[in-house]
């Protein structure tokens, strides 16, 4: 073996090793950035309700407690902020389980038409407050059997329907359509609401991303709903997409595996 060849081989090996390490380091740096961002977002989300609670309690201690006309109001506001903290913590638990990949899907065969009807029933009051109609695009007399984690898919449809109401317009409508794709079914949730600006569309599935922060918080949003939805659909090895036009409306569509 020539000396020159050995040098070449060794330097090539070293090169590959260095490249590998560089990649590893940049990956670790990305993870670190991601972790910092996540922590920053979480503490920011938690601060608002906590400071609100502090304000209400201080007002009560300051004398409002003695006034029966206003003490109830402050207690009710405290309760509302506590409920908000609970939903943030629940969503955080869910997303960290999903991201850690520890989630086990409990797949079963069920009728998708029934599941959507259950979601409609549960969200009826919310929809009625905004005079929004929840309906199917046509009547589905026959069952649509799918195999999936029923509870998780219930959550997916709920999140999409709740968004369609929250970001929908007064007296608008939410429509669910099933499209047959042979071995799969495409479920579309459409509204005729405010829509999403084109440049924001690719970002709506990111955690804590909101087009309009104050609007989302007013509606009780945590900014985690769509990130959770996407994780659940991907855990099923299926896909989700969105199309939207400002002031016209939004359609979210996801697929599920059909069974007979
Ligand atoms: P949030 O808790 O803020 O609703 P999501 O993750 O569910 O969080 O949604 C992220 C953002 O995407 C929302 O804040 C909103 O700006 C936008 N969005 C979601 N669904 C719709 C919809 N149907 N119409 C318009 N905008 C929507």
Automatic annotation (TrEMBL):
- Reaction catalysed? ATP + protein L-histidine = ADP + protein N-phospho-L-histidine
- Which Enzyme Commission number(s) are listed? 2.7.13.3
GO biological process assignments: cellular response to phosphate starvation
Cellular component GO terms, alphabetical: plasma membrane
UniProt keyword list: Kinase, Membrane, Phosphoprotein, Transferase, Transmembrane, Transmembrane helix, Two-component regulatory system
Q: What molecular functions are annotated in GO for this chain?
A: phosphoprotein phosphatase activity; phosphorelay sensor kinase activity
Q: Give start and end of each Histidine kinase domain.
A: 41-260
Q: How is this protein named in the record?
A: histidine kinase
Q: Which residues of the full protein are shown?
A: 88 to 347 of 347
